[in-house]
Amino acid sequence: MKKLLLLSFGLCLLNYVANAQAFIENFESYSVGSLVGQGNWVANTKYSGVPIKVEDFGAAHGGKVVHIKPGGVAGDGPVIPFNNSSLNLATTGTGTIYVSFLVQFNALPTGANGNYFFYLADMSSDPNNTDGRGRLYAKPDPTASGKFAFGAIASSNVVGDITYTPYIYEIGKTYLIIEKYTKYTGSGGTSKIGTDNLSLWISETTISGGETSPTVISEKEADGTATVSKKEISGVGFRTMESSYDIVIDNIKVDLSWSNVLSPVVPLPVKLTSFTGQNQNNHIQLNWATASEQGNSHFEVLRSGDGKNFNVLTTVSGKGTTTQISNYSYIDANPLPGTNYYQLRQVDYDGKSENSGIIAIKNTLQIAKMSVSTSSDQDYIKLFIMSAVDEVAEVRINGVSGNRITSQKTILKKGGNIIQLPLKTLNGIYMVDLISTTQHLSTKFVK
Which InterPro entries match (predicted)? Predict the structure, then answer.
């Protein structure tokens, strides 16, 4: 994704360098792993930190991004100061900065009031400052799964002061966020009522041209009568107050100019959100889903009997490029006896591929069985075999002492089979074995 952004906005980047006013964080120079300690990112140790990591989806998918997925832990993420003091908004000063980034939600907070995930940080004296300004929120729609609203608040800490959009946004889609923060002074020194202003723009496509009407405006502090201590705006930070978040963020920009933070919305990489399997109706049903796809040609469904050596079962076409949630399924009609190991290989149009994790499904289907019909006055027996697959098998009949009486090759069809086997021998107790590459059935009979 960054590669496309750099190509599209090379002239803007030259302008950034010339004016030394831009802050750009596209994570490309970082190593895969924790964001803390890379570049100028520092941990917020006042509360338990959350797992915020750099992940590399490969050049074809847009390179490196930040993945916020607490996984059972909630708290404050890392913060980073601007790399140029000209972007800072002093505690008692005035001015405006613009902030933009790309974001995709793959899981939402569960709190009815929503929770914030991004804020403007005060880095002037303590990087652990958690009383951020310009907070951006996400709030799930209580009536529609996968829908949510974005929210914004300028300087207040009061839930009721958050201004929310309608519930029109969807998980799995990539959005361009632009935040404009304007700081004012006034009577009261470092405390001021109802003055700082935040405007928020949200788009699925490129925003071009001059500054348009914002999606959301937030300009209220507290309840309109109380004072809130002002903060210096000198960096940005992440926050996840709930453990259910799953967010991908990319290409953070901060500048004094509207035109310099505009970015095209490019779908984030193929994001596999689930891969499961279960025994069902004499087969194993596999299901998987993606939150979004970019250049996805197809999936290969792989199977193994030992978890190490995999073979391709089938190919399932991908959706190409989409920001919609996509659901896939495949039925393994002939699972192996015992435990089956499955894996997906996602293949791009350019031939690059990536494997999923491995899931293990124990085959509990009782479809392979055998019974015998005999008569003391006939010189043959009938075998009734329910086979799991089409294959060649050998039928062996042994005496109780283990001596071989007879054997015969046979072709089994998946499902029910009736085999008549000559047996001219004395009446007694015998053992019949059916042996193939995937099945071994045994049973005793009396003739």
Answer: Ig-like_fold
